[in-house]
Amino acid sequence: MKKIYVASLNRNKIDAVKEVFAGYNVEGSHCKSGVREQPLGLGEIIEGAIFRAKTVFGNCTYSVGIEDGIAPVPGTLSGHMNFCCCAIFDGERIYLGLGPAFEYPPESTEKVINEGITISQAFLPVSGKPDIGYEEGIIGFLTRGKMNRKDYTKIAVEMARIQIDNAELYGLRA
Fold it and tell me: Which residues of 16-42 are buried (b: 16+ CB within 10 A; e: fewer)?
């Protein structure tokens, strides 16, 4: 059976990859991100996802790194939105995908930027859940259960898989 390592022990991330890659043996693996605990800026978010994917690659078909963070977006109340990036690594190439972006309440975003804490820490007074990222996620809280973190993450994984499934269109296969 084909194997995939996910550079996380977070069930939301592992289950998102399992759903996108049905028929693969998907396992989580502890891995640091190589970036700040709370990435700031799209470049740092992508860098963290790539670092994770490359770090856990070995004896598998693909490895997957998933990183969330906030990045500047003009026209938003806080000036920032959350992005989820998925990097899939096959030992040679990185395939990237981003999920949809959403905005945290401005007060939470300000705490992240000004105090250097994670969004989960900044959102704790609102949610009352210290491990919200391992549960429904802040997206689940803000959408009142209409979308959870696994489903949000799954979109980024699907977007990264596009190049794998359509390699000939991207000039990746002869």
Answer: bbbebbeebebebbebebbbeebbbbb
Q: Residue 43 is part of a domain; what is its CATH number?
A: 3.90.950.10
Read off φ and ψ for residue 96, nearest 5 degrees.
Answer: -110, 145
Domain interval for residue 157: 3-102+147-170
Tokens representing residue 143 in the block: 């959408």
Q: Evaluate whether residue 114 is within a structural domain.
A: no
Q: What's the pLDDT tens digit per position in 61-77?
A: 999 999 999 999 999 99
Q: Tokens 């190049």 label which residue?
A: 163
pTM, to two decimals: 0.95
Beta strands in 46-123, from DSSP E residues, in sequence order: 62-72, 80-89, 94-98
